[in-house]
Amino acid sequence: MSIAFVPGSFDPMHLGHLDVVDQALEVFGAVVIGVLHNPSKPSGLFTPDERVALAEQTVGDRQNVTVGAFSGLAVQAAAAAGADIIVKGLRTTNDFDIEQQMAHNNVALTGIRTVFVPCRPDLAYISSRFIREISSQGVSINHMVVPAVSAALSTKHGEVNS
Ligand code: PNS
Q1: Domain span holding position 77
Q2: What pLDDT score does 160 carry?
């Protein structure tokens, strides 16, 4: 069994992310989800702790999946987690350009390689940014996230708007 590190902002985690985790789990056997916490930049909609909790609720009772926050470089966090490989999902060719550059940097820094997996076509339109935007208008995003995330978005927008 190998350990795959799946990094991201996860603000919040959605079903497209979950599919990437499932693909990584199937191929490598164990997954560490790394939630980026950048202390020098203001938090997104959810705090890092909230994003970790929502990622944990999204993966549910899957075995061999853990979630943690990291700051700094993803590849350093991958090494610290004992990961053998970084796994990233690609939605479009636009994703590939920047991801390829990061992959080259990451292997040069630590020897940890990156594997890209194609996002499931029916989920490839989903992004955290649009989930935040759509849900802020009170429109349902239930087809894009697990119920716990949907509920957290409703609560968060209520807080933000109050
Ligand atoms: O969900 P996102 O925002 O697309 O995830 C991007 C993320 C967090 C995976 C990427 O920005 C990242 O790895 N950031 C940490 C800093 C880093 O490692 N940068 C790359 C240097 S080569």
Answers
A1: 2-161
A2: 72
